[in-house]
Amino acid sequence: MPDTPTAPVILGNEPGSFPRSVLAERHPAIIQQVRDAFPYGPDQHRALDALLKNCTEGAIEPLPLDAPDHDQWAAWGTDSYAGHSWYDVPWLWSESYFYRQLLGAVGYFGPGSWQGIDPFRPFKRAELDAPETDEELAPLDALAAKSPEDRANSLLHGSLWGNRADLGFRLSAVGTESAAQAPVPALVADDSELLWSLLSGTGATLCLVADNAGRELIPDLLLLAHLLDQRRIERAVLHIKPHPYYVSDATTADVVDALHRLTGAPGAAATYGRTLWSAMADGRLAVRAHPFSCAPLPYADMPADLRAEFAAATLTIVKGDLNYRRLVGDRAWDPTTPFADVTAYFPGPVAALRTLKSDVITGLDARTEAALVAAEGQRWRTGGTHALIQVRA
Ligand SMILES: O=P(O)(O)OC[C@H]1O[C@](O)(CO)[C@@H](O)[C@@H]1O
């Protein structure tokens, strides 16, 4: 980004800031929710007590030497940050490490009988099984009568707004302002025409870097099903997380749950589900769980194999707030910094579909920013009531 002045990396230590509240309030609330959701034994309760104390008052500790990802995390930053307060290191890093430590506390990485048990699964399942999910699937029947373009646009917006509230957001009751109360513009940037133009050729491969499971993953999958069915893309690669992360982030198990939910639903939803099921079987839809998907680092630092995958794609769609922070760098950018400049390093065309749930923002025009500030002060940045579709071709 030669011509783009850089901006300070966001830390968690500014009093009264949103990042600080996530570290000081949201993380303890998440520990409590997880503790209440499982009949954990004394070892796990002790480990959760220790994590609670450490992440709010203590200093960062490296992973145990025998942890399977000890070396990985040493390279990702524990070597540099051990001994520092959680608040004084990049917020992206400390948040990510919190989830790693939470999994460690409940025995996710084993050995032992809790190995591989997703501590967020009850919340994800409850969302997937909720009647609201059926309500969101029902309009697919009426959508069948629309043109393929109208369907594509509706499903794109379904995927975008599916990101409205991740479970971490809801569990800690921050940002509960409803979208209906949002002042205009709800969509602060809309490059959807450019996005569709990138998928107008033949033989396209679309990478979709997923975010949350449940009511976000379902519309992501519906979008992929439609694009595959219409031959708007030949192949889709769905990037999910190799292990549970940020409460509701999608893993392979969540993809399987979502596909069961779709194929078992009434009406058109089941047809989408079957399209996806057979696309998985013949390789037109692949699922990838790259370790870097759970890295505490910006995508600018991605490893060569992942870079090559994105370089080979016709378009990569990056979903959600956290992925946006990683895509543009978790920095206090001037909101009018061009999106194309901060994503210039990305190895191929890239689109961000995100509802706004943290301070980072780029690519706004000055008028939009001024209108948002006039209406809401700075609340529009974190309330989850605004969204964007930004594309760099
Ligand atoms: O699920 P999403 O859209 O990535 O949102 C997660 C976001 O929630 C937070 O945990 C708090 O807003 C952010 O750190 C993160 O960016």
UniProtKB/TrEMBL annotation:
It catalyses: beta-D-fructose 6-phosphate = dihydroxyacetone + D-glyceraldehyde 3-phosphate; beta-D-fructose 1-phosphate + H2O = D-fructose + phosphate. The keyword Membrane does not apply. Residues 23-368 form the Damage-control phosphatase ARMT1-like metal-binding domain. It holds the Pfam family ARMT1-like_dom. Keywords: Hydrolase, Manganese, Metal-binding. Its cofactor is Mn(2+). InterPro entries: ARMT-1-like_metal-bd_sf, ARMT1, ARMT1-like_metal-bd. PANTHER family: DAMAGE-CONTROL PHOSPHATASE ARMT1 (PTHR12260:SF6). Belongs to the damage-control phosphatase family. Sugar phosphate phosphatase III subfamily. This is Damage-control phosphatase ARMT1 family protein. It comes from Streptomyces prunicolor.
